[in-house]
Amino acid sequence: MRFTRRHPLLTAVLLCALAVLAARPADGDGSHTPGHGSAPGVSAEVARLYEEAAAATEQYEAGRREAEKQRAEGQRLEERLDRERQDMAGLHEELGRIASSQYRDGGGLPLTAHMLLADDPEELMRGQRAVRQAEVSLDKAIDKSERAEARLARDEARAAAAWKRLEQRNTELAVLQQGIERKLEAARWKLQGQADASVAAGACRGAVRLDQPETRFATRWVAPVETYELSASYGSGGARWANRHTGQDLAVPIGTPVRAVGTGKVVKVSCGGAFGIEIVLQHADGYYTQYAHLAAVAVDQGDRVRPGQWIGQSGTSGNSTGPHLHFEVRVTPEMGSAVDPVPWLARHGVSL
Question: How far apart are CA 106 and CA 110, in angstroms?
Answer without folding.
Answer: 8
